[in-house]
Amino acid sequence: MFDGLLDNGILYHRIDEDPQPGMRLGRHLKLDARSLAYMVENDVQAMSTSLQNQAWERVIPILDQGELGSCTGNAGTGALGTQPFFDAVGQKVLTSPQDPQAGEEFAVQLYSDATKVDPFSGSYPPDDTGSSGLAICQVLKDRGTIPGYRWARTAQGFLTLLQSGPVLQGMYWYRAFFQPDSQGFIDSDPNWKSSGVAGGHEVEALELELDQQDAFNSVITYANSWGTGWGDSGRFRMRLRTYEQLAGVDLAQYTL
Q: In which region does residue 130 sit, left (phi positive, over 0), alpha (psi from -120 to 50) or beta (all else)?
């Protein structure tokens, strides 16, 4: 699966993309062994906190990456524009939070900077190479926008991260996911796996609705970056059961 192993313990994999018009992907996988020290699963106090329903307010509008593979930059910008991160750091750098064009310009520059620090050949502009969620976090830290970031390896860890703010989630995107149902669920078709992988995508998880009877039926709501005409006004939903199935293939999630 992995294309390379660097001397400093970084595994990376470039994911082939088969997008649909106006629904670009562009996320690749980059794992750094040094991140193991910053897993939320290492935080005993955090992991012992009771899980609660969450709905983090997104201050900035849904963005639209168009035909550029900048989903990583868009997801990172979305997290900065969502509470509590907006009040903490986002409002300092997102100077026109209600202007979608300004938000998209910020996202594209963030994506561009990420393509210069990730291990994948080419950088934007002119090469629309895609990038990784980890590269986005590294750029934001190097800029001084955020003091650091944490990540999760398990469903429990992911839900724990969601207790304190939105989460960047990188995932394989299946062809069935392009067309959510009337409620915004991308996994209504039980045979979604058979549709095949269209590429890698980075999105922002910002809401959690727990099912006390069956935890795997808990619902996560995400902000996408394909404009408000897609899904539920630009958002989509996925069950924790689907998250668990994706976790067996390729998932990486970070919080600022």
A: left
